[in-house]
Amino acid sequence: MPRERTPPSATNSPLTIGRLAKAAGVNVETIRYYQRRGLLDEPHKPPGGHRKYTRAVLDQMAFIRRAQQLGFSLAEVKDLLLLADGRSTRKARVIAERKVEFLERQIGQLGIMRRRLRSLIGASKRAGARRFCPIIAELIGATSGAKKGRA
């Protein structure tokens, strides 16, 4: 279940990692993971104190989440964050165009998989309980439609 987000007005002062996580609607470990991946900077920790995060980091978290919702990988998100000043339209467009090409290939592959599965389901309905299951035979790699000694 998504965490409750803190209203933006409550995030004007520096935030601890726990408050940042709550405001962003993510787990603290997500923030640490993004830091390890180079998506977020880790603020300086004062001696005996806690790291403090700014509103800008909360905005970066929102950027990351929106980019992921569009299907961008974390590596692509990292590249897009470098372009977040909005002045590199061509570079951002190239990244988005590559993502669309990738998604179109995936859609084509999914269509092939769907057709094959529908065919196997049809063969399974026709076979009933009289023969070795065509779906299992496909997964085993049987070419004759039946594989003896395996179930």
In this structure, how is the largest beta sheet organized?
Answer: none
SS elements, strand count: 0
Using only CA atoms, what is the Rg?
Answer: 25 Å
CATH class of the largest domain: Mainly Alpha
CATH architectural name of the largest domain: Orthogonal Bundle
What gap, in angstroms, lies between the N and C termini? 39 Å
The number of domains = 2
Mean pLDDT: 88
Total of DSSP H or I helical runs spanning 4+ residues: 6
Low-confidence stretches: 145-151
Query: Helix/strand-derived class?
Result: mainly alpha
CATH topology of the largest domain: Multidrug-efflux Transporter Regulator, Chain: A, Domain 2
Indicate the proportion of strand residues.
Answer: under 5%
| Helix content percent band | 55-70%
Order of helices and strands: HHHHHH
Shape: elongated
What can you see in these coordinates?
The chain has 151 residues and is an all-alpha fold. The protein folds into 2 domains: 1-84, Orthogonal Bundle (Multidrug-efflux Transporter Regulator, Chain: A, Domain 2); 99-151, no CATH class. Helices cover 57% and strands 0% of the residues. It is elongated and about 75 Å long. The chain starts with 16 loop residues before the first helix and ends in an 11-residue tail after the last helix. Residues 145-151 have low confidence and may be disordered.
Notable features of this structure?
single chain, mainly alpha, 6 helices, 0% strand, elongated
Helix and strand arrangement:
Blueprint: H1 17-24, H2 28-36, H3 55-69, H4 74-81, H5 89-127, H6 134-140
